[in-house]
Amino acid sequence: MVPDKVLDEINHNRKGYEEELAEFLRIPSVSTDSTHTADIRQAAFWVLKKVQKLGFHVELHETARHPVVCGHIVNDPALPTILIYGHYDVQPPDPLDEWITPPFSPSIRDGHIYARGATDNKGQCLTYLAAMEAMLSVTGTLPLNVKVLIEGEEEIGSPNLGSFLQEHREDLQTDVIAISDGSQFASGIPAITYGLRGLSYLEVLVQGPRFDLHSGSFGGVVANPVQVLAEMVARLKNNDGTVAIPGFYDHVLELEPEERQELSNLPVDEVRLKKYLGVDELVGEQDYSPVERQTARPTLDVNGIWGGFSGEGAKTIIPAKAGAKVSMRLVPNQRASSISEGFKSFIHSIAPSTVKIQISEMHGSDPVLIERNQPAMEAAARAIAFGFGKKPVFIREGGSIPIVGLFKEVLDCGSILLLGWGSPDDGAHSPNERFSLKDFHRAICSVAALFYSLEESYRA
Ligand code: BES
Ligand code: ZN
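Above: the input record for the complex with BES. Below: its predicted structure, written as C-alpha cells.
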C-alpha cells in the first residue's frame, strides 16, 4: 500500500519528527488567554512555514480573533481531494504545580512526550504534515490533492470558523475530510470514530444585594446568592441523576440494539477505569453501560461554581453574587440552540424573585454522526490496520469538535474521517498531558497509508 521508500523515510526520520513536535510544543499557544496572543500568532506562523516548506500554496487568514492557516496542493484535478483539519491552539496549562515538568518544556519519559498540546492537538495534527513530508521528499508528489485548514480557536469553540467556512466554501470543496483530534479506544486498540457529542455551555450569574453584607446585621432579611445558586444547580438533576430540564431528552436518538451490541463488545475494563479516575464508584443512567453513558447519552455537568468568601479563616458575610458554569454534552438529534433555550427557561422558571439572574451562552455545537458504510471508512480501516498492526474498532467519542457539524452542513461533505491517534489516558486538558511516541510514529505510517489507500479506492 505504501511504497517501501516512503516507509523507509518515515522510519529513518523518526527523531526528526519528534524534534519538530517538541519545537511546536514549546509555543504556549493558549487561545483562551489574551496574554498569549503573540504566542498564538507564533504558532500560526510556525504552521504556515511548515506547510509552505512542503510546497503548498498557503495563506494566513485573519479572523476576529485568532488566525486560520489554509493551504493546498493540486497534483491532478482527476485525483480525489482530502481536507485535513487540526488546531494549533491549546488549553490553559493550570494547575501548574501539578506538572512534573513544565507544560511548555516538552520532555520525554517512558516513551511519551509530555507537554500541553502533545495529544490535543499538536502531536496528532503533525502526523499529517510529517507523512506528507516523507511522501513528497522521496516520491516528489502526493497521491491525492490536499487542502489543509489549521485553526487557532478550537479550544474556545471555533467562534469564527463557521463564517470562514461559508466565505471560503468553494475553495474548501473536498471529497474527504480527515481529522485526528481524539483517541483510540484504549492504548493499543485503534479506532475510527463515527460520532461526536455536541455541546451547550452556559454561565449563570446570580446577583443579590449591591455589595457583600455583614451576615449578622442583615442575615434573615436578604436572599443569599450562593444559597440560591446552589439550590438551582441542585434542581438541574433528578434524584436518579437524569437531567431535570423539561424537554431535555425529547429528541435524543436511542441506540439501536445492534449498535448497543457492538458497543458492548468493546473491551471495557471498569476496574481499571475507576483506578485511573481515582473513584470507588461510577455514576449515571443505570440502563446504559459506561461506554454508552460516556459517548452516546447526553449529560449535564457543573464545570465551576463560585461566590462568597473562600479564603483562609472565616469571614461573616452575605455575598453579593455567585456564578456557575454549566455544560451539557449533546447527542443526535439534540440541537445546541434549543437545549440552551431550554436551560435558560428552566433557570428563569425556578429562580426566586429575590435575586437577579443573568445567563450567557458560551459555546454551542451540534452533535455529529457519520455514515459508516462508505469507501473512505474502509480505506481508513485498511490504513490503520497497516500503521497500527491491528484492525480498528468503531466508536463514538464523548468530546466535541465544534466545527465538524458545519463541515457536513456548509461543505456538504459527509466523508469525515475522525481518526484519533491519542489515548484516553493522555491527559488532554489535564496536567501532564502526553502523547505516546510509538503512536506518533504508527500514526504517521497510517496517514501515509490512508493517502495511498484513498487514492486506490477512488480509482477502483
Ligand atoms: N480534542 C478535543 C475533542 C475530543 C475530546 C475528542 C475528547 C475526543 C475525546 C477538542 O480539542 C476539545 O477539547 N474540544 C472541546 C470543545 C469545546 C472547548 C468547545 C470539548 O470537547 O470540550
Ligand atoms: Zn481540547
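Notes for the reader.
Residues 4-196+367-459 form a domain with the Aminopeptidase fold (CATH 3.40.630.10).
The radius of gyration is 24 Å.
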